[in-house]
Specification:
This protein is mostly helical and 192 residues long. The protein has one domain. The protein is built from six helices and no strands. 27% of the residues are buried.
Length: 192
């Protein structure tokens, strides 16, 4: 097991060494809105699908692909969070908040993967014209089920909590904004 942790640490160190040279310190805040919007969009289209059935299962397709894109965006955003945290001066309070933020982000990813997995297992009923119903590669799989809906709601709750902690770190404790200078355009400066 220590061998695997050694490999993981080597990959992580390499990623950090490369990432801090390539990406700006604010790369994580630039990307966080994508997984949030995609997971909320998946939940919204899922709810629309419950109430508005179309022959081509548009809302089932949309919610599935928004969920998949939300997972991908979350992974990319988390990887960029590792880069952004290298530029921050931490206090004990903000370190505790970061640990909570990361734990919630991991739980968001876990619930998102479980929601995708539950959809990959769920089959459309054969009585509903399977030739016209959307499914993954014609397999009949990919239907929104009660279990996948529960996991999706849990993922949305967790990403909301993750975002709340992230916002608290930025707006209450100034994490990631110290040392950033803003130039105010002359037309916006007050002339007192």
């Amino acid at each position: 097991m220590s061998f695997l942790f050694g490999i993981w640490n080597a990959i992580l160190r390499t990623w950090i060494n490369i990432g801090v040279r390539i990406f700006p310190p604010v790369i994580h805040p630039m990307l966080v809105h994508f997984p949030i919007a995609l997971l909320y969009g998946s939940l919204f289209t899922t709810l629309l699908g419950f109430f508005w059935r179309t022959p081509d299962r548009f809302f089932d397709r949309a919610s599935f692909w928004l969920l998949v894109l939300g997972l991908i965006a979350g992974i990319v955003t988390s990887a960029m969070g590792v880069i952004s945290e290298q530029f921050v001066k931490w206090t004990p309070t903000t370190s505790a908040l970061l640990s909570t933020h990361q734990a919630y982000a991991v739980l968001t990813g876990l619930f998102t993967m479980l929601a995708i997995g539950a959809r990959l297992i769920a089959r459309y009923p054969r009585s509903r014209q399977p030739d016209r119903a959307w499914s993954l590669n014609g397999s009949g799989r990919g239907r929104q089920s009660v279990l996948s809906f529960i996991f999706l709601v849990a993922a949305v709750v967790m990403i909301t909590m993750t975002a709340s902690i992230g916002g608290t770190m930025v707006y209450q404790y100034g994490v990631g904004i110290h040392g950033v200078s803003f130039r105010i355009p002359p037309q916006l400066q007050s002339h007192g």
